[in-house]
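Format notes (please read before filing issues)

Several people have asked whether sequences and structure tokens are stored in separate files. They are not. Every record keeps both together, in the order shown below: the sequence lines, then the token lines. Line labels are part of the format and must not be stripped during preprocessing.
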Amino acid sequence: MDKELTFKDNYGFTRQVTVMTRGPGNNKYVKKLNRLNVLNIIKEREPVSRQELANLTGLTSPAITGIVR
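Then the structure lines:
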């Protein structure tokens, strides 16, 4: 069963994330979640740098570059 978690990020924005709790996730699902998370942050905070996106999401800079290209 998945869990919904809500927290405040370093910039004071409230974030809601889904945490998978039923075993290992598949790669495509995780990539899709990361992409949706990044796109939502871009919509909320435009303009936003790749470094800010990395800090907000916990993803690496190369991962952010791969998502936004």
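For reference, the curators noted about this record: Residues 23-69 form one domain. The CA atoms of residues 41 and 47 lie 10 Å apart.
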